Amino acid sequence: MLIVRAASRRYGDDPALERLDLEFQNGVYGLLAPNGAGKTTLLKMLAGLLPPSEGEILYDGEPLADLDEKYRMKLGYLPQRFGYYPGDTPLKYMQYLAAIKGMNRKEASERSELLLDAVALGEAKRRKMKTFSGGMIQRVGIAQALLNDPRVLILDEPTAGLDPKERGRFRSLLTQLGRDRIVILSTHVVSDVESAANEIILLKDGRVFAKDKPEGICLMLAGRVYETKIGDAEADAFRERYAILAERGEPDGWRMRFVSEAESALPQWQAVQPTLEDVFLYVYRDAEGRAPERMLFPREPAGSGKRGESV
Ligand SMILES: Nc1ncnc2c1ncn2[C@@H]1O[C@H](COP(=O)(O)OP(=O)(O)O)[C@@H](O)[C@H]1O
Ligand SMILES: [Mg+2]
């Protein structure tokens, strides 16, 4: 079990994370927050690479600082950016890392081949990495994090650069891995974690805003998410008044998905089940109530009457 106890991290005077308390058992944990929220900082602390400014992190009851090498033996880590020599093949790169981790040559070779197969790089394992797509490089990164069959696997934005097919394959690998180890991954893409993560952690303002099962997180907006059709003339006023989660232009107005904090709904509003994406957009909306910019696109493919996409 991995425990974060009142851990803070400052950069100079800037408090990046403040007094976090977290517990991790076997399973998949999705650290979900926009850029700059402190995901990498937390993951580096959990990997024992960055000491907390205050507080402590314990693995099976012992501070990471004391475990040092013993913890590294149990840890797999994919940094947000990882270095490799472009002229290397994935097989050579993996074998090199395995040697550093103290594996013998035969074990290193077998394990490297097995893992490269697992991330669907079996065919490409003897090709130079400089010919690889971003998604292929990222898959090498995921494979190397698994070399020592880690008990604690920490992946910092592992799906960056993966295409939809690669993402799907990665999600099934995740659920498999999470059955008998702690897997913690960061992402700002909701779909990466909504089906695969046992628990979601939302960071906000340097603190843990929520840590719960995906269903539990969705309950935060239960009974407050609606959809309705708004005519052109009222659209701007509506946007001012409600937190818009998504909108889609249609020939005769706008289809709006929004949050209402009011007790009673208007008859023309349809109550809908909140999704994890709704919660993400709402929690991280800005002071004017606007959703994070990157998320302003229609939730569903627009019909033939499509006119505009977003504000
Ligand atoms: N080495 C550093 N020196 C100074 N500030 C940093 C450093 N690393 C991160 N920060 C700051 O800490 C905050 C959290 O960053 P980070 O952990 O990288 O967030 P995320 O991974 O969620 O994008 C940001 O405001 C960032 O600018
Ligand atoms: Mg980061």
TrEMBL record:
Q: Can you provide one Gene Ontology molecular function annotated for this UniProt record? A: ATP binding
SUPFAM superfamilies for this protein? P-loop containing nucleoside triphosphate hydrolases (SSF52540)
Instruction: State the UniProt keywords alphabetically.
Output: ATP-binding, Nucleotide-binding, Transport
Q: Where is the ABC transporter domain?
A: 2-230
Organism listed in the record? Saccharibacillus alkalitolerans
* Protein name per the record: ATP-binding cassette domain-containing protein
The highest taxon in the source lineage is Bacteria
Family membership: Belongs to the ABC transporter superfamily.
**What Pfam families has UniProt attached to this entry?**
ABC_tran (PF00005)
Where are the annotated coiled coils located?
Answer: none
